[in-house]
Each structure stands twice: as structure tokens, then as C-alpha cells.
Amino acid sequence: MILPIVAYGEPVLRKQAKQIDADYPKLSELIDNMWDTMYNAHGVGLAAPQVGLPIRLFLVDTTPFSDDEDLSPEEQKALNGFKKVFINANIEEEEGEEWDFNEGCLSIPDVREDVKRKPTITITYLDEDFNSHTETYDGLLARVIQHEYDHIEGILFTDKLSSLKKRLLKSRLDKISKGKIKVDYKMRFPNLKKSR
């Protein structure tokens, strides 16, 4: 089932999400619905706060990036078929020299900006079967994970922009929060009663 994606301005996007356990109600159904929602919106990642739930859950499928001809064959291979669920994730370490990459977000449609992030991360998380993992990722893979991880920490990519960029974007962000934007996927706006 496709869920509405909450738009910029919804308070849930600013909450630090809570850990869950294996007894979380209808978890596998929620994960299936989040995959459906993400693919319907042509995303490569989706976090639970983006569907209105303040829990530490996000998922990533970077396969669409694997066709990017600007990437090295090694990076294309790493991105192709990378599909994972991250529960109760914690980034243990971020290393390297920050690099810029143009990011967007399903909760902030039609806004794309260069964001600086460190290239290598080590993350601990549980998979959908609640098996524990500690893994290290780099490059674009690390970036997608960092972006989704920020969502469960209540951080949006626009928070990482300069104060000048934030001021320039303010009116566009206000329009998004008021639902004055056209999107081709289901969204819920904070200042409107219904999703559309």
C-alpha cells in the first residue's frame, strides 16, 4: 500500500526517532508499504518519519544510481542491487574529507542543493529479522545512508546548507509546507487537513 509522504513543515520530521523491537505492530507490513511508497515516488531511500512515524527505521535501494555514467565501474557495481532495511541504526564513525553532492528529498519536492558530507561511515543496525550488523560504506552509498539516517535524527538536508542558501530557499519551503506544489506522488502537508 502506498502511504502519503509527509511534507516539509510536519513536526514528525523534526523529532529524534525512537528505537523499536521485534514486537513493533505490523512491522513487516510497514516495511512492505514503505518500499511501495518509495518506488512509487522514484526515491532511493525512505525513512519512517517521512511516512509520519517517529521510529528508527529506514530503507535504501540505490539500484537507480548504478546507471550513472559519471561513476566509476566499482561504484556502479556497489550501488547496483544494494537494497537494505536499517532498524535502530547508529552511525559510529564518519571519516574523510567532506565532499559536495547534489541532494534532494521526497519530503522537500523540487528542492535540490549541494550538501557536504564525509565520504566513509561505519554504521551499526538491525536488519528486518533483527540480526545485528556493523558495516562500513563509502561514496554515494554512504551518502544515501547518511541522508536517511539524518531523518531518524530529526535532521533535513536543508539544515546542512549555509544561512544564505537557507534564506534563499525560505519562500519555496513555505510553499511546500502549505501544499502549494505539484507532485506526482501522494503527500500529506502540515497546513492542510487532507493528503493529496
Automatic annotation (TrEMBL):
Annotated binding of Fe cation, by residue: C105, H147, H151
GO terms (BP aspect): translation
Listed cofactors: Fe(2+)
InterPro entries referenced in this protein's UniProt entry, alphabetically: Peptide_deformylase, Peptide_deformylase_sf
Molecular functions per Gene Ontology: metal ion binding; peptide deformylase activity
Gene3D superfamilies given in the database record: Peptide deformylase
EC number(s) reported in the record: 3.5.1.88
Keywords attached to this entry: Hydrolase, Iron, Metal-binding, Protein biosynthesis
Keyword Glycoprotein tagged: no
Catalytic reactions of this protein: N-terminal N-formyl-L-methionyl-[peptide] + H2O = N-terminal L-methionyl-[peptide] + formate
CDD domains the record matches: Pep_deformylase
Cofactor note as given: Binds 1 Fe(2+) ion.
Active site as annotated: E148
Homology family: Belongs to the polypeptide deformylase family.
NCBIfam families the record matches: pept_deformyl (TIGR00079), PRK00150.1-3 (NF001159)
HAMAP family: Pep_deformylase
Function recorded in the entry: Removes the formyl group from the N-terminal Met of newly synthesized proteins. Requires at least a dipeptide for an efficient rate of reaction. N-terminal L-methionine is a prerequisite for activity but the enzyme has broad specificity at other positions.
Protein name in UniProt: Peptide deformylase
UniProt organism field: Flagellimonas meridianipacifica
